[in-house]
Design goal:
Layout (H helix, E strand, L loop, with lengths): L1 H7 L2 H16 L9 H8 L3 H9 L8 H14 L2 H13 L6 H13 L3 H10 L5 H13 L3 H13 L6 H14 L2 H14 L5 H13 L3 H9 L6 H13 L3 H10 L5 H13 L3 H10 L5 H13 L3 H13 L6 H13 L3 H14 L5 H13 L3 H10 L5 H13 L3 H13 L6 H14 L2 H14 L5 H13 L3 H10 L3 E2 H13 L3 H13 L3 E2 L1
Helix pairs in contact: 1-6, 2-4, 3-4, 3-5, 4-6, 5-6, 5-7, 7-8, 7-9, 8-9, 9-10, 9-11, 10-11, 11-12, 11-13, 12-13, 13-14, 13-15, 14-15, 15-16, 15-17, 16-17, 17-18, 17-19, 18-19, 19-20, 19-21, 20-21, 21-22, 21-23, 23-24, 23-25, 24-25, 25-26, 25-27, 26-27, 27-28, 27-29, 28-29, 29-30, ...
Length: about 525
């Protein structure tokens, strides 16, 4: 036993197992105890006692079911260390990693946030069923690997295993995360052929996928076919309309909800606040008899995003007085409010609270801290925090690049953009929109054109904000014709688009053309604010 554990585990694991054996002997438990006791103790949640029995078993347990019961006990308690002990015992005794045990191990590692070990077990399994594939697809989709989730889904289908309703409900969020409408439609067709379109989980995932991929009409078509919408259905449809900028339709759906709760009200509050209807958002917020952390977060985030930073800070203080404990999303919402109103003192106080709560290292929070210090003018502190981040996502890089660009440090922004790519991070539309102003302010045409090529290769050349940044960059670099060409191809223009092209002509001495464009802007039917 000790040899097998040494071979498959660590010294620490061996010591822990030895401790269990000593304790077991102290209790004078005999070796004659039936393996059925392992199953019984596992089901009762008495995991340590079950492990003690396992510890005196020199050979493999004679039933997969016993191992599965032990692992299910670990899953229930998210007991990763104990789960590793069981995994080591299975490997050490040479028991075959069959489908049931493999699925239990994958589920344990996924539940405990260990995607690497889950993937390792999945790859070692000689036989996989739809449950094996679905757990891994769901794990990838939920942990920020949507592309990998889709690859695994297609791989599963090529092996001849048919997806069930849980597989479809797991893979659709990956399409939503990537904005892959075409793939989402293909999966919807597969759902129709499989007969799962009326399943509640699948229907809700379809509504969410279509809404997040910008096809609100398809989202509504699916929603209208749900015979008995649940709270997830209603809330997803409300959130979909909010995201599409259709507040009137969002209100209509919200008013039809038979039993409004915190869940649906959270989506509506976000809609009101993000669209500038702050009074309506606050009224609905005040009417709620119970407020969970998600509701407080929605109110704070909505106020911060709509330019009401001081009001967001007031709500944050109310939240603390009400005894509701902020989470990482709360801090990620309130810190931008500090940055938007240059409230450095309050931002530093919140930073202190973050350190005490142990949430400072969360990527989403660390990125928000970098953004807050940069917007408050402390670019050195922003960079210090950025350099201390143990893990960075695309948002982290984008925030720091934008901080440099907005604070007149264009060369630093361009260097960081290069470093980001050297470290394997792929820029998205927000990254491009953040680095292009650095090129514009430096009149760095060559670098700007290189970035434009990357924009095209990344498939975001039609992104509204990116095109505005490109027009501004080419205009400030003196390429008026290039700027005008991009402007003329736009299907939608806002004030920023018009201002960028007008300024391009004006700053290079084309006053008449600038005035002509200004008059066109005033009479344009395609301008949005």
């Amino acid at each position: 036993m000790v040899r097998s554990l040494t071979r498959n585990g660590t010294v620490k694991t061996m010591s822990k197992f030895a401790g269990l054996l000593i304790d077991f002997e102290r209790r004078n438990v005999t070796k004659n105890i039936s393996i059925s006791d392992v199953r019984r103790l596992s089901k009762e949640g008495r995991l340590q006692e079950a492990l003690q029995i396992l510890g005196i078993t020199e050979s493999s347990i004679d039933s997969s079911y016993a191992y599965v019961c032990l692992l299910q006990g670990c899953i229930k308690k998210k007991a990763l260390a104990e789960g590793r002990l069981i995994h080591g015992h299975i490997n050490g005794t040479g028991f075959m990693l069959d489908r049931l045990i493999g699925n239990a191990l994958i589920t344990l590692y996924v539940k405990c946030g260990n995607l690497v070990d889950a993937c390792r077990v999945f790859n070692q399994m000689s036989e996989r069923d739809v449950c094996s594939w679905t757990v891994m697809i769901s794990a990838y989709a939920k942990n920020g690997f949507p592309q990998e989730a889709l690859v695994l889904f297609h791989q599963m289908r090529r092996t001849g295993i048919e997806a069930n309703q849980f597989t479809f409900a797991s893979v659709l969020p990956a399409c939503a995360s990537l904005g892959s409408l075409e793939v989402g439609i293909e999966i919807h067709e597969a759902i129709r052929r499989s007969g799962f379109q009326s399943d509640g989980f699948v229907a809700n995932a379809l509504v969410d996928m279509y809404a997040k991929c910008g096809s609100i009409e398809n989202a509504r078509n699916v929603f209208d076919k749900i015979s008995e919408p649940d709270k997830v259905s209603w809330t997803t449809m409300v959130a979909g309309y909010v995201q599409a900028g259709k507040l009137h339709e969002a209100v209509e759906v919200f008013q039809q909800i038979p039993r409004k709760d915190v869940f649906s009200s959270t989506a509506m509050i976000s809609g009101y606040a993000q669209n500038g209807f702050v009074d309506e958002a606050l009224k609905l917020f005040e009417e709620m008899p119970q407020r969970d952390v998600a509701l407080w977060n929605a109110m704070i985030a909505g106020l911060a995003q709509s330019g009401h930073g001081e009001e967001a800070l007031r709500i944050f203080q109310e939240m603390q007085l009400a005894g509701v404990r902020p989470n990482s999303k709360t801090f990620a919402s309130v810190l931008p409010a500090c940055g938007n109103v240059a409230a450095l003192k309050q931002g530093m106080e919140i930073h202190g609270g973050l350190i005490r709560s142990g949430l400072e290292s969360a990527v989403i929070v660390a990125s928000a801290l970098v953004d807050m210090y940069a917007k408050c003018g402390d670019i050195d502190k922003a960079r210090e925090l950025f350099d201390r981040m143990g893990q960075r996502d695309i948002l982290s890089w984008t925030v720091m690049i934008a901080a440099y660009a907005q604070n007149g440090c264009g060369m630093h922004a361009l260097r960081l953009f290069q470093q980001m790519q050297l470290e394997g991070a792929k820029p998205d539309s927000k990254t491009f929109a953040s680095v292009l102003p650095a090129c514009a302010n430096l009149a760095a045409l060559e670098q700007g054109m290189e970035i434009h090529e990357k924009v095209i290769r990344s498939g975001v050349e039609s992104d509204f904000v990116v095109v505005n940044a490109l027009i501004d960059m080419y205009g400030k670099c003196g390429c008026i014709n290039k700027a005008r060409g991009l402007f003329d191809k736009m299907h939608q223009r806002d004030v920023v688009s018009w201002t960028a092209i007008i300024a391009s002509y004006a700053m290079h001495g084309y006053g008449d053309e600038a005035l002509t464009l200004f008059e066109e802007m005033k009479h344009s039917e395609y301008i949005t604010t």
